[in-house]
């Protein structure tokens, strides 16, 4: 049944409104000030709020900030001062209408009659969301393929809950955008969303970055620093590449998830935190556990609700939908109306996209930039970037009995050689972060320098590629 909250410090006004609204088939709750009103909001979210502008402990418009504007709650403000300024101010802040004291009860009934009934409103919202899904939009994500519809169903179910989510998918499939969508559809959406790439932070600094540090706690700590868990309090923390987190820190992360408390580096006092963790990996998490990359107890704590993001090659017509969306963004930004020529559309639909959505977005940007000035079509550019040095082989033979560490070393060095020393491309093919690749090469020492003999000549191009890709790393489905 529709529910109305009446906020007014005058008991006669409250009672009169409650009586009129009750006869219209709506339930009511009343409050005499902001404190009581906020208690009522916690007890039950109303469908309509009638609030006086002037209350003993503040203004009725302060309640606007306590409810998300997308919730569909209608605000009717009541004022004892019939001024154009107060009415316009209330309407600008989101009020559906306003009443002047003494309240005309017939006007109240007229307002209630023309307001959309909450049941109808919820049905409209549900219908709109369904229509957007059919058009290929869900939160911040894009795609209308059956594989993505299944992902949308899972996100829609788990987003409103407090459950931890583990996103699994190849590099470039849109794990961060999926995490942002989970946050936007959750009850934490009014608080911070922070994304952390566990593989891009130095192992020596990651504990300080996660939990913060006190001034003087180590060399260079010249001020107090609040970590991600403290800054994301009340919101969502996205831990990408969770398998790249050092094992000793995984123990501390597990404790935070289980107890909700942590300590800054150099601090003896515990700090409470209320953070929802969404983790992601481009590895098979069970294999990562067997390889010692991910603690089993942490895996079980994060894997409350796993969601697998499909690679772009399994999403059919989503390739064309996403490509057009990326091109539309470029056209809008630069005031152009370029389209894809038929040959480019055919090429894109038949290509397997090993770099997934990230690679697709980079390709669209490249095709747009290479177009002739004044042209209404994009350029037809190669789908694969040519390597700076010819390959000497396309396979790596690893004998039975080779350790996993040695197999990793051979595969990484061979891939780097295939890419002519271009570490950005090698990291993309291997499905690891550039920082992780650098760390591995430091471990391999002289072998990596010999293998990447063409590296120096490719550094400029690599730096350029990094600069060009920086603005698109967050792009995903």
Automatic annotation (TrEMBL):
GO molecular function terms here?
ATP binding; sequence-specific DNA binding
Q: Tell me the InterPro entries matching this sequence.
A: AAA+_ATPase, AAA_lid_NorR, CheY-like_superfamily, Homeodomain-like_sf, HTH_Fis, P-loop_NTPase, Sig_transdc_resp-reg_receiver, Sigma_54_int
Q: Which Pfam families match?
A: AAA_lid_14, HTH_8, Response_reg, Sigma54_activat
Pinpoint the Sigma-54 factor interaction domain residues: 141-369
Q: Which residues carry this modification: 4-aspartylphosphate?
A: 52
The Gene Ontology biological process annotation of the record reads:
phosphorelay signal transduction system; regulation of DNA-templated transcription
**Comp. bias regions, Gly residues:** 468-477
Keywords assigned by UniProt? ATP-binding, DNA-binding, Nucleotide-binding, Phosphoprotein, Transcription, Transcription regulation
Specify the Response regulatory domain's residue ranges.
3-116
Q: Residue ranges under compositional bias (Low complexity)? A: 453-467
Report residue spans for region: Disordered.
Answer: 448-477
This protein is called what? Sigma-54-dependent Fis family transcriptional regulator
- Per the UniProt record, the source organism is Trinickia terrae
